[in-house]
Design a protein that fits this description.
By secondary structure, this protein is α+β, with helices and mostly antiparallel strands. Helix content is 30%, strand content 18%.
């Protein structure tokens, strides 16, 4: 049998290798290093992340600090969650109270973003009774109480912290109290009724939600989107809180090995996530940042 020369073999290999490039691409998209979503999770082969302007909510999520790799998910009481196999990364989002479950985690994330961006007028959430609880109104009430205590201290000729202007620490504490009030009095239903509108997979934005209002009901937040420019196929990363209240985390895709992205072809409903099955296609757009 005639032997093929090394040079010919190499030529043939490099000539046909692009045809099988998908096979050679590493499947491990979640790295152990990286402090943010964008640094920790790579994109599928040939995909690119959709653009995100600086200081937008999409940019905020992509650069939100993550807990170190291999960290366990903790419940609101500090105990470890029983299922530690459903997530691939955990956001370092503080848990305000036991009411910060699925919808509560999303509210907390949006609230933190708007607070840091000084969007005071946009920080407003509808409670289950329909009341619109505004951060600006909360501030006014807090300032009224502060002035009352300051005047009282002055009349009693006692110097207190209320005799000087509220600082960053005091303002942050007031905001955290406001957020706890919001989380205690909101739900999936109030979010559906007042804060979101139906949308489609093709129109998805980072910050939109995959939704089920059944029993027990659940939702996931779209925390990143990437697209294959050759095929226009879209893939998304989903994150969730859950009940009991627990740390907000990016979930795995049960249909894919070492690839947490949910590709367009994966959304043939019912859609299975590690801890919930979404029976029907129900995407909703969040209105918190709409003009």
């Amino acid at each position: 049998m005639k032997k093929i020369s090394l040079s010919v073999a190499l030529f043939v290999f490099f000539a046909i290798s692009p045809l099988f490039s998908d096979l050679f691409h590493p499947l491990q998209l979640v790295k152990t290093e990286g402090e943010t979503l964008e640094e920790r999770i790579d994109m599928p082969f040939k995909f690119t992340r959709i653009p995100a302007k600086k200081n937008t909510f999409a940019d905020f999520i992509r650069n939100y600090p993550l807990k170190p790799a291999e960290s366990p998910i903790l419940l609101f009481n500090g105990e470890k969650k029983q299922n530690q196999d459903a997530h691939c990364a955990i956001f370092a989002l503080p848990i305000q109270n036991e009411s910060q479950t699925d919808s509560g985690s999303i509210i907390a994330l949006y609230a933190e973003y708007m607070y840091k961006m000084d969007m005071d007028e946009k920080i407003t959430f509808h409670l289950t009774n329909g009341e619109n609880l505004k951060w600006t109104d909360w501030q006014k009430n807090a300032e009224y109480g502060r002035n009352f205590r300051s005047n009282l201290a002055g009349n009693l000729k006692k110097w207190t912290k209320y005799e000087k202007k509220a600082g960053k620490t005091e303002r942050l504490q007031s905001f955290q109290n406001y957020l706890k009030k919001v989380l205690t009095n909101t739900s999936i239903l109030s979010m559906q009724t007042y804060e979101t509108v139906p949308t489609t997979f093709s129109a998805l934005q980072i910050g939109d939600i995959l939704w089920d209002l059944g029993k027990p009901g659940h939702l996931c937040l779209v925390v990143d989107i990437c697209v294959n420019p050759e095929t226009s196929e879209k893939a998304v990363l989903l994150a969730q809180g859950f009940s009991p209240a627990q740390e907000f985390h990016i979930i795995k895709n049960p249909k894919r090995i070492n690839d947490p992205w949910y590709h367009e072809e994966d959304f043939a409903f019912p859609v299975e996530t590690p801890e919930y099955v979404f029976p029907n296609e129900s995407w909703r757009h969040t209105k918190y940042l709409d003009n």
